[in-house]
Design a protein that fits this description.
single chain; 328 residues; alpha/beta; Rossmann fold; 4-stranded parallel sheet
């Protein structure tokens, strides 16, 4: 009798799922800035639709410029997901020309993520950049005009905004995405929630996997190209001791290189990480005449295919690259 009841409720659950899928409406008009966030949005949307991605391939949000076709895409969209206004600065000028009915969601705010403080001093420097030459902060009606006469950093006004690089933060972001899409398409609410639950379970499994994988390299010092990995380091107890570039798309000064070489020798750093979005020339100059190895860390997944599984591939690859370079 009990087995019959169990089979009945399993069949009922399957029936509800099929009914929900059958009654789903297409999720359209969704635009996402970077690939890791696009993966999370895709995971929540599931088979109800496909979000549009702006920054592809080896492009970086640092210094990215929208194509005219992408500007048109933004104007026709219903909702735009980004990390934070200080990361995707290329959106600021576009937003001044986007219709008011287009919802703009920055997930740092929507997910209520507590930002880590910006690391400063010595080998850790604030990533400043000057006022944009194209005057994007001066655009009439731009809500960010208040920043027009000051440099601002890629880490946001109140902290480091590379928040997507841990499964724990990704879980918060997925929940925020689910809330936003459910508000826009309430007919699909149950589907979004079910997809989010499945995605979050995978994130929790990934987090446990990485804790085991990285336990043996926690104490090993390393230097990164630019300070994008603080959340990952904190989550898994890794020992980052400095960054090469003050600005990811500018070459460091001779003084800066001297500081980093000194830090490398003092800490007996065995690995210096480059990023595929930027030239490795400076990294090679840092490790020249030392025993340090060069590793690769990619916060954006340049060579990974976009889609629901991309985020998991990105974080696993990040962890494996840490492990490989830090293992003597």
């Amino acid at each position: 009798m009990l087995s019959f009841v169990k089979r009945f409720f399993v069949a009922l659950g399957i029936s509800v799922i099929y009914t929900s899928v059958a009654s789903a409406i297409e999720t359209k008009g969704v635009v996402v800035t970077i690939k890791p966030l696009h993966s999370m949005v895709s995971g929540v949307m599931g088979t109800t639709g496909k979000p549009n991605l702006l920054v592809t391939g080896y492009a970086s949000p640092h210094g990215f410029q929208l194509k005219p076709s992408q500007v048109k895409l933004l104007k026709r969209s219903d909702i735009i997901f980004s990390i934070d206004e200080f990361l995707e600065t290329f959106l600021q000028r576009a937003f001044s020309n986007i219709p008011g009915n287009v919802k703009q969601v920055t997930v740092v705010d929507a997910a209520r993520i507590k930002l880590l403080p910006i690391r400063e001093g010595g080998p850790w420097e604030v990533h400043k950049h000057d006022e944009h030459k194209d005057g994007e902060h001066k655009a009439k009606g731009d809500k960010h005009t208040a920043h027009k006469d000051e440099g601002h950093d890629y880490h946001g006004g109140n902290g480091d905004i590379h928040v997507w690089l841990t499964p724990k933060n990704a879980e918060k972001i997925v929940k925020a995405i689910t809330r936003e899409l459910s508000e826009l398409y309430p007919e699909n609410r149950n589907i979004y929630k079910a997809n989010a639950l499945s995605y979050i379970q995978k994130l929790q499994k990934l987090d446990d996997e990485l804790k085991t994988l990285l336990v043996d390299v926690k104490a090993k010092p390393f230097i990164v190209f630019h300070d994008a990995f603080q959340y990952f380091e904190k989550a898994y107890g890794l020992n980052g001791v400095g960054t090469i570039s003050i600005e990811p798309d500018e070459s460091p000064s001779p003084k800066r290189l001297t500081e980093i070489r000194k830090k490398l020798k003092e800490t007996k750093t065995s690995c210096v990480f480059k990023e595929p979005q930027f030239s490795e020339r400076v990294v090679r100059a840092v490790v020249d005449k030392t025993s340090a190895k060069i590793g690769v860390l990619d916060p954006l997944g340049a060579n990974l295919k976009s889609g629901q599984s991309m985020y998991f591939e990105l974080i696993r690859k990040l962890a494996n690259n840490f492990k490989q370079c830090l293992t003597l």
